[in-house]
Amino acid sequence: MKTKALITALLLTIFTISFAAKVKLSSDANKDLRNARLKFKVERKLEEALVDFQSVLNEDPNHLEALKVSADIHYYLAEPDADDPDYGNKELTVSKKIENFSKARVLFIRYIEAANAEKKLSKEEKKWLLDSEKFAESCWVKIFKIGQDKYNEEDFETSENIFLQLDELVPNRKETLFYLYNIFITKQNQEKAVEYAKKLLEFEPNNKQLLAQIALYYVEKKEHETALQYMDVIIENYPTDIDNIFNKAIILLEMGKKKEAYDTFLRVTEVDKNNVEALIEAANISWSEGDMQDVIELYNRIIMIDMSNPAYFQNLVVFMNREKMYKELIPYAVKWFDMTTNQEDKKTAAQILIYAAQQIQDDKTVAKYSEILGKMQK
């Protein structure tokens, strides 16, 4: 086992390796160092050894032996060998494991910094430097795995606390941020989810899911200008994402920017020429602006895409009737009349057909639908 190999190596080397004395310790600190070695090597009282090593570090914060051995002890206490007679049978809580791995990592990093600051290291100190780099990363991995397991168990409260601690220990690491983002999404805490989504964007600035999540958050807060900034990034990187383009158009419309909204709805149809919904929205904008000719042109496009919906024919007939396009509306009114199952709509279609035919002196059509309308009204 890795932990057993680590502690065994320490037992064999604690007195054979001579850490260079970078700072001359006081007599009290030297006494604490000897006591720490005794408790660690002979008495196997690891927690007490840590206390004495800490006394050494209080005097010399960069004491390489005290840093390295303290780090190793914490690492071992977080995950002792099962067959260790002194520590193997102890029940360790998740919080205790994380506490020891966290302390171990801090000490490994301190050792690395202290060793790198030295102009000359012994052969053994160089070896411990390499080991410290490996074990510092291992501490992070161990804590991450605990948090990941809790997340997979759907224990989101515990996993949140673990990943928050991990993010404090090693700030802004992508893997940690990813889990925190997903945890807050699951808990429907949009504000916190967006906080971590923004941090993740530093690693993946064009991530569509993250950008869309942030944009939605600002839409819901009615901060439309900010939402549009994120939507524009999506459009720039994913120009065929019609949902995002459509949503941008809706926001522009809510902001009262009708011309920009109209152009954006039509941009949807440039990507998807059969997008009826975008054409209808564009037609509604033109109708609100009184541009009936454009409304009629757009509804002609809509009908060419979908000829199965009588409502489209109804709308086009109504618009054409307002523009006195009597000859042009007749075939559409006939379609509307034939397709609709609503009797009142049929009557209205027949009345418009009769009136339009009268305007262009189409006696045959007038006669046909007058007869039909008469029967319907009986």
Overview of the molecule:
The structure is a single chain. This protein is an all-alpha fold. The protein contains 19 helices and no strands. α7 packs antiparallel against α8 (174-186) and α8 packs antiparallel against α9.
Give, in order, the helices and strands.
HHHHHHHHHHHHHHHHHHH
- How far apart are the first and last residues' alpha carbons, in Å? 95 Å
Report the structural category: mainly alpha
Kindly provide the radius of gyration, computed on alpha-carbon positions and rounded to a whole number of angstroms.
Answer: 38 Å
* Average residue pLDDT: 92
Strand percent estimate: under 5%
CATH fold title of the domain at 1-171: Serine Threonine Protein Phosphatase 5, Tetratricopeptide repeat
Tell me the number of strands: 0
Text of the CATH class of the domain at 1-171: Mainly Alpha
Low-confidence stretches: 1-5, 7-21
**Helical coverage, percent range:** over 70%
**What general outline do the C-alpha atoms trace?**
rod-shaped
Helical stretch tally: 19
**CATH architecture annotation of the domain at 1-171:** Alpha Horseshoe
State the major sheet. Answer: none
- State the assembly state of the protein chains: single chain
